[in-house]
Amino acid sequence: MTDIAYVSVPKDLSRVKTKIILNLTKRQILCFGIAAAIGVPTYFLTRGFMGNSAAVMVMIIFMLPAFFAAMYEKDGLPAERIVLNIVRARWYHPSKRPYKTENFYHVTEQEGKIFDQTEQPATTGKPTAAKPKASVGEKPKKR
Fold this sequence. Notes:
Blueprint (H helix, E strand, L loop, with lengths): L25 H25 L1 H20 L1 E2 L2 E2 H14 L11 H15 L25
Antiparallel strand pairs: 1-2
């Protein structure tokens, strides 16, 4: 019997990216090159007066944005596109509410006050109902 080799093929071929060197894309190679161009001189310029450990930390801090730009991708968008979209949504085109909601609690409260004011009994000279007596243990109110 012959063994057949199976190769998994992704369903969405538009998400497959062309790898060039060391299984890296052109974008990753470019960003790593920029990171090296920023980080290596930073290390050599700072290690004389800061020491090796501090110079390496400064170099890492300077190189991190380029590494982030090379590696981070969400929903097919690279990092700088995501940041640009956030900036546009937050500052250039702030959201506007197309409508304003009504506070129904406040509206019903106001209607209740109006209802209470309009439903007061008119004085006709007839005696009104007897006033309630004080409960057990309460003192009668003085007038």
